[in-house]
Amino acid sequence: MFTHPQLDPIAIHIGNFGIHWYGLMYLAGFMAFLTLGKWRAAHQIWRGWSVEMVDDALFFGALGVIFGGRLGYVVFYQASYFIEHPLEIFYVWQGGMSFHGGFLGVLVAMVFFGRKYHKSWLGIMDFVAPLVPIGLGAGRMGNFINGELWGRATNAHWGMIFPRVDNTPRHPSQLYEFGLEGVLLFLILWTYSSKPRETGTVSAIFLIGYGSFRFLAEFTREPDANLGILSLGMSMGQWLSLPMIVVGLAMYFYHQHKAQPLKPF
């Protein structure tokens, strides 16, 4: 049995100003995107991508993550509250982001990126997909440091007590998601995309992988208090992940059937 270390959410104190761990995790994810993206841009498979384009992809993607993530949280998890307190939608410093909303935001942002550089939208997503999991993993580590999004009660010997919640041993579900959505998904996508693939299949693997890993991890994660368990015994996270799996499978088999060579540009 373990106890959560209860780290200070603020990593660096500078007078009355503080730099939060969660912000540093976002920064780490963005830096990983740039570093790996520029390495990929220099690879023959991804000819047609430049360093400047990777910088721009991050800029567009970051906007999609921030705006989409916030709106997704408002719509998917706290709609009734924000209907009564609409101005608080803009209080992003109070927390509240949704991966699925951020994901949709990135999809929209990449449409505008594609128009700017006259690139195939699916080709862009195939380039971007393997760069995302490290940021997802960093975000889950930020959740763990903050002691938020804790797991369900468990009798497992690796259960962890989160003192800010209660004295009940719980699954460290943030670490499960770090390992699945961050490390394992990155390894799968990076390996799969290291060779030319049919356009759209890398994106499909991302959808299948993330959707499946998130669906499984949700069985150990405490449901949002205001929502609880929804129909068919599933959480909101699971209901939002199911369409990703279905669409990913459909995309994969469709593009495999078409058997078109990878066209990253």
From TrEMBL:
Chief location category: membrane
Pfam family for this entry, one: LGT
Taxonomy, superkingdom: Bacteria
Organism taxonomic ancestry: Bacteria, Pseudomonadati, Pseudomonadota, Betaproteobacteria, Nitrosomonadales
InterPro entries (UniProt xref): Lgt
UniProt similarity note: Belongs to the Lgt family.
Protein name: Phosphatidylglycerol--prolipoprotein diacylglyceryl transferase
Membrane topology: Multi-pass membrane protein
Gene (UniProt): lgt
Keywords: Cell membrane, Glycosyltransferase, Lipoprotein, Membrane, Transferase, Transmembrane, Transmembrane helix
Residues annotated as transmembrane: 19-36, 57-79, 91-113, 120-139, 175-192, 199-217, 229-254
Alphabetical GO biological process terms: lipoprotein biosynthetic process
Subcellular location field: Cell membrane
PANTHER family xref list: PHOSPHATIDYLGLYCEROL--PROLIPOPROTEIN DIACYLGLYCERYL TRANSFERASE, PROLIPOPROTEIN DIACYLGLYCERYL TRANSFERASE
Organism: Candidatus Methylopumilus turicensis
GO cellular component term, pick one: plasma membrane
Function in brief: Catalyzes the transfer of the diacylglyceryl group from phosphatidylglycerol to the sulfhydryl group of the N-terminal cysteine of a prolipoprotein, the first step in the formation of mature lipoproteins.
